[in-house]
Amino acid sequence: MSKTFTPNGNLIGILGGIILSSDSVFIRLMGIADSWTIVALRGVFMWLVCMSVWLLWRSSRRTLGTPWLSKDNVFAVLFFCLSSACFVNALNRGNIATVLVIISATPFISALISRLFFKVKIDRSLLMAALVGIVGVVVVMSGRSGHNDALANLFALGTAVSMAMAFIFSARVQGGTLALPSVGGLLAALLIMLWSGNDLVESLKLLQPAQYGWALVEGAIVMPLAMGLITLSTRYVSPANAGLFLLLETALAPIWMYLFMNETPTIQAVIGGIIIVSAVIFQSLYARWQAQTERLADAG
C-alpha cells in the first residue's frame, strides 16, 4: 500500500460505494421472496460477466486478477462468499435502515482486526471520519421506526465482519483483486445449489422474465462494479478505509428508494446522509493533502 496513490484509492472506493448504494433498490425490484435464490442468481451473473471480461479483454487481467479460487486468494474469496450470502439475507429479511446501520460498523471492525491481529497502524483521520459517519447513521436511524428482526440483524452483523475480513485479505492478494467478489459470489451460488438441490430449481422456474431481468442487471452490472471497485481500492488505501466507503450506502440508499420506489425519506435520513457523505469526502481530501505534504517533504 502506497500513500502516494491514496487519493486514487479514495476516488475508486467512493465510486464503488455510490454504485453499491443502489443495490437495495434492485433487490426490492426483483420481488423474489427467497433470499437464497437471489444470492445464487447474482453470484452466477457476477462471475459470468467477470469471466467474460477476463477472456475477451486480455489487458484487464492485471486488474481483475484470477477469476477462480487459488491458494493466494482463498481467504478473501471465502469471506466474500459469506458477505454475499449474509448481505442479501439481511436486506431481504429486515428493516433496510437498521441493516445498513449494522453493516456501517465495517470500518471499525476492520480497523480493530487489522490493529489487533495484523499490527496495522490506523490513521487517526480515518478513525475520526468513521466516527463522524456513525453519527450520521445515528441521525438517519432517529427518524425510523421499524420492527426489530433478530435474524436480519444477525445476518447484517455477519456481513460487517465478513466484509471487514474480505478487505483485509484482499489487500494481501498478489496481483489484481477486482474479480474477488465475483468469485466469492459464485462460490456462494455453488454451495446453495449443493445444499438446496431441487428446491432452487423449482424456485427458479417460478420466476418471471422481469425478475430475471432485474437480477441480471444487479448481478452482472451493479455488484461486479461496486464490489470490484471497493476491493480494488484496498490496493491503495487501508482495509479500514475501504470499509468506510460502505457508509455511502447508508447515506444514499434512501435517496434511490425515493427516486425509484417512491418511498419518501425522512428529514433525518437527508441530514444524516449529508453528514456521512461529507465525512467520506473530507477524509479523501485530507488524504490527498497528506500525500502531497509527504511528497514535498521527501523532495526537500
Overview of the structural elements:
The chain has one domain (3-295). The model is unreliable at 1-6 (pLDDT under 50). 78% of the residues lie in helices and 0% in strands. The relative contact order is 0.23. By secondary structure, the protein is mostly helical. It contains 15 helices and no strands.
List the helices and strands and how they pair.
Elements lengths: L5 H15 L2 H8 L4 H22 L4 H4 L9 H20 L2 H8 L2 H13 L5 H18 L8 H21 L9 H17 L1 H8 L3 H25 L5 H6 L2 H15 L5 H33 L1
Q: What is the structure about, briefly put?
A:
The chain contains 15 helices and no strands.
What key phrases describe this protein's structure?
single chain; mainly alpha; 15 helices; 78% helix
Strand content: under 5%
Overall tally of structural domains: 1
Distance between the termini: 23 Å
Shape: globular
Give the number of DSSP strands: 0
Query: In terms of structural class, how would the helical and strand content be classed?
Result: mainly alpha
Radius of gyration: 19 Å
What series of H and E elements makes up the topology?
HHHHHHHHHHHHHHH
Number of helices: 15
Low-confidence stretches: 1-6
